[in-house]
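Box 3.1. Reading complex inputs
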Amino acid sequence: MFDPHLTPSDAEQYILGALDSELERKLEAHTLVCDACARLLQQEALLEEQLREVASATPREATVIRPARWRVGRAAALVVGPAMAAAAAALTLMVSRPGPVVPGTVQESRVVLSLDLPVELPSMVVACPDLTTQESCAQSAAARGLLVQYPLGMGEVPRYEGSAGLPSGALSSQPAPL
Amino acid sequence: MVGAAVQGLPMTGRQREDAEQPAERAQTGEEELSRRALGGDRRAWDALIARHQRRVVVSLLARGIRVDRAHELAQEAWARLIQQQQRGLLTELRLPNLALTQAAFLAADDARRARREAIAGNVEELLERQHPVDPSVSAERRLLSEEQLARANAALAGCSPSARNVFLLACDGQELPHAEVAARVGLSVQRVRQILCEVRKRLRTALEEESHV
């Protein structure tokens, strides 16, 4: 190796630290006696410095956040379901509350439905499956008020196909009978 | 003068790759190492030097400094930092930037001294590789123009997300060893280096394009 001179690949491997110590020593010794190879090594080192500038200037955005509607129904049901049941029970009690009934008039019952829910219920669940960016992803999601579904949790692979929630055949292409 | 302060330095240089096991490096965080080093822990200093030594040497090579002198200056830079820590002058340890700054300062000082000495003798008689290098001139060349940066960013955006991720992990200043990058992305070290070479090739082309315009 390095006979007679370094190749760009040799210099690159040196800069990346991919050479074993013996080859590294030989390469360094060669650059001390060969100006052309010393310049080649300098160019690779210069490129490395510039690439680090590029890397530091590249925004590390949370690219892993995916809108994932899967499990939203189940997650929402866990939160909203009991609350809705309680509200329905309260509504039933208020409506069926005994009181004076004036015949011939419509009773004006002012039903106030109050749910003890968070002001802003997260309506979207995001996944942060990439372990390398999970922390920043989760922070970004939290800042946006989103729920984070971790890969080891109950999440599934997100699916994006749309569904109108109608049974198949409900939208028949045939004209409706008059 | 610096000798006593460099007692923690025999681990630097050639033995740096053997000094620290990758597993240990992966487990020990940079912040924890810095905290221990500020407390005077020699093992922590050794680990930090092993992690950042190549970066310091490469930065000096980029300034046109001979490789043997680059190793010496890097060694001297670490010795100065340890000395400052022992005197209680270091309140925080942000690496590799602190070591890079120290090494650049030493390189500039070295160049000034070489120029002063050259006044007495005839520097033109020296071989080209022995000419003193002005690091500030090389430093100007290192700075990327906005256009170059934009081209490089565009080229980087054209890489696959996994390649981009590998590049950013390896080059964003954390100085993660390739073994750790490989562990994080679930690839082999060989594959990580292959990806880095591919990304470097793309970015090199992007950076050189502008100079031909």
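In summary: The first strand of chain A starts at residue 66 and ends at 68.
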